[in-house]
From TrEMBL:
It comes from Saccharibacillus endophyticus. It holds the Pfam family Aldo_ket_red. Residues 17-317 form the NADP-dependent oxidoreductase domain. SUPFAM superfamilies: NAD(P)-linked oxidoreductase (SSF51430). This is Aldo/keto reductase.
Length: 345
């Protein structure tokens, strides 16, 4: 396992991070189901666990906290807040009012006194970034969080946060968490240039495109009952649904990538994970394993490195900066739906 500095901090994080979106009723219901996965990841050298308050409505954080009892000092915990966590109008977003509550709630669920990396889960266009950075600064000073980060921000929002931090002498976001895979390369257009400019670490989620880049799905063929395509709903289901017509172009690219992986002597999943590791601006890739077998197979790819020829061949299949499915971008600004909503009204 390789360890890399998180941006311009002194914090070293493992190249592969364990994502816990499947901890809880979204995937593995009990602590006993999740413990082998977490134990295996830690034994392999993973030192950063990524979760969020919204994952299984807080259950993921609770399970992570229980499983890390007695070894908290050896593990870095990253969590996120901002998505709706209740029916109240102020139980979401990045206001001072909610972020303080959200952090306290996450600390309680995690059973810890501090969070190593607290990330704004999605941009909040209704709250000035200065307001959010003020409360994050207070939380850093109080010792409740060590570092602040963002997630699903666009390049201009990353820059705005950095400028606001400098102008107001507030806590600076040190990381950005974005979706990135061979099939979803949109962050290469400008986001990765912005993070490099400001020395921001980048954690990427969905490097296997929700499981599509494992090769287990076949276009036009119904998925198995225990797969994400069957279990998830909404956008998550759309991304991996093998019967969704809009996914045909992705499956055509996957077939070519499968051939390339075989020619290079590796699995498609290892090719996909190594691709995200090849970009110099990427700090770590987040794994989202539901079973111990999936985790072990992914971990086998920690030492896989892609040659320039293989990277060039990938570019010929999915060009740099191209995203084959807009649903995979992670966050779509509300204003993109303005015209459609106006016409419907």
């Amino acid at each position: 396992m390789e360890y890399r500095l998180l941006g311009e901090t002194g914090l070293k994080v493992s190249q592969f991070v364990l994502g816990t979106g499947t901890f809880g009723f979204w995937g593995n219901n009990t602590k006993q189901d999740c413990q082998p996965i977490l134990d295996e990841a830690l034994a392999a050298g993973v030192n950063l666990i990524d979760t969020a308050d919204v994952y299984s409505n807080g259950q993921s954080e609770e399970i992570v906290g229980e499983l890390l009892k007695g070894r908290r000092q050896d593990v870095l915990i990253a969590t996120k807040g901002g998505h709706s966590m209740g029916s109240g109008p102020n139980q979401q977003g990045s206001s001072k009012h909610w972020i303080k509550q959200a952090v306290d709630n996450s600390l309680r669920r995690l059973g810890t006194d501090y969070i190593d990396l607290y990330q704004l889960h999605v941009p909040d266009v209704n709250t000035p970034i200065e307001e959010t950075l003020e409360i994050l600064s207070d939380l850093v000073q109080a010792g409740k969080i060590r570092y602040a980060g963002t997630s699903n921000f666009q390049a201009w929002q990353v820059v705005e946060a950095q400028w606001a931090s400098e102008r107001k002498h507030l806590a600076r976001p040190v990381s950005e968490q974005s979706p990135y895979s061979i099939l979803n390369r949109s962050i290469e257009l400008d986001l990765l240039a912005a993070t490099k400019k400001y020395g921001i670490g980048v954690l990427v989620w969905s490097p296997l495109s929700g499981g599509l880049l494992t090769g287990k799905y076949t276009f036009g063929k119904a998925s198995s009952a225990d797969s994400r395509a069957s279990a998830f709903a909404g956008n998550l289901k759309s991304i991996v649904d093998p019967t969704r017509q809009e996914n045909q172009i992705k499956f055509e690219a996957i077939a070519k990538l499968q051939d390339l992986a075989e020619q290079a002597g590796m699995t498609l999943a290892h090719l996909a994970m190594a691709f995200t590791q090849a970009h110099p601006s990427i700090t770590a890739s987040i794994m989202g394993a539901r079973t111990i077998e999936q985790l072990r197979e992914t971990l086998k790819g920690t030492e896989v490195r892609l040659s320039h020829d293989v990277l060039d061949a990938i570019d010929a299949i999915v060009p740099p900066g191209v995203t084959l499915d807009s649903v995979e971008k992670g966050w779509n600004p509300e204003w993109l739906n303005y015209r459609e909503n106006t016409l419907r009204a």
